[in-house]
Write a structure and sequence with these properties.
233 residues, seven-stranded mixed β-sheet, 11 helices, globular
Length: 233
């Protein structure tokens, strides 16, 4: 089943890390630097998708769910967007390439190694002027957004970090008055690895209007889904 597929990938990754003395994320970045067109976000995305579907699985949003992300970003047309969980920078590049002039994305990453890779990925894709990477835990950064990063309210939030942080961070966004009427949240991986507590919270909250988008786990035939929640104020 799914567990076996993912377990197989983890074992293979650990062996490859040991042999090559570098992380999978570093290998993804190197593949992009060698094969993608610098300054072309679509080329960077295609190259990451190619590597992750043919060589090593990785937890990017991927090409199939990426279309749901694109559609949502285009509908919202945000001036200020927030991403929780940068990882290698795939979805940051994906979001940034669709932002209108003057709009920007704040992306939060807890892991310093991932943050370092994402910075290079964002720079290579040529979207560094639209993206600000904030390193640290989301629960510390969210309360600083207004004062330290001059955010009034967020038009769009992409949740793709630790699944057990989806609910507390959504609550924190409300407590910090960062959501306005019409702010859109999009949450990834709500089936695999799954975010049942978040779904229970958001679907039973009268302040949110939810839509479910069935899809598949990135680069696999395993069922997954994304949940869109519009804040009603």
């Amino acid at each position: 089943g799914t567990a076996a597929l993912i377990w197989n990938e983890i074992i293979r990754e650990k062996i490859t890390n040991f042999i090559m003395n570098q992380s999978k994320e570093q290998r993804i970045l190197n593949f992009v630097l060698q094969n993608a067109v610098q300054g072309d976000p679509c080329s960077v995305l295609d190259t990451i998708d190619k590597y992750c579907s043919q060589k090593e699985w990785a937890m990017n949003v991927g090409d199939e769910k990426g279309l749901i992300l694109d559609k949502t970003v285009e509908e919202v047309n945000p001036s200020v967007a927030l991403e929780l969980g940068t990882y290698c920078g795939y979805s940051a590049v994906r979001i940034a390439r669709l932002l209108k002039a003057g709009a920007h994305l704040l992306t939060v990453e807890f892991n310093p190694e991932f943050a370092a890779i994402a910075k290079q990925m964002i720079q290579f894709a040529g979207v560094q002027d639209k993206v600000k990477l904030l390193e640290g835990p989301s629960e510390e950064i969210i309360p600083q957004l207004k004062k330290k990063y001059e955010v009034d309210t967020l038009d769009f939030v992409f949740l793709d970090h630790w699944k057990d942080r989806y609910t507390p961070d959504t609550i924190l966004l409300q407590e910090c008055n960062l959501l306005r009427k019409g702010s859109v949240l999009l949450a990834d991986n709500i089936i695999v690895p799954g975010a049942p507590e978040f779904l229970n919270y958001i679907r039973n909250n009268p302040r949110f209007q939810c839509t479910n988008y069935p899809s598949h786990l990135e680069y696999m035939k395993v069922e997954d889904a994304m949940e869109k929640a519009v804040f009603l104020g």
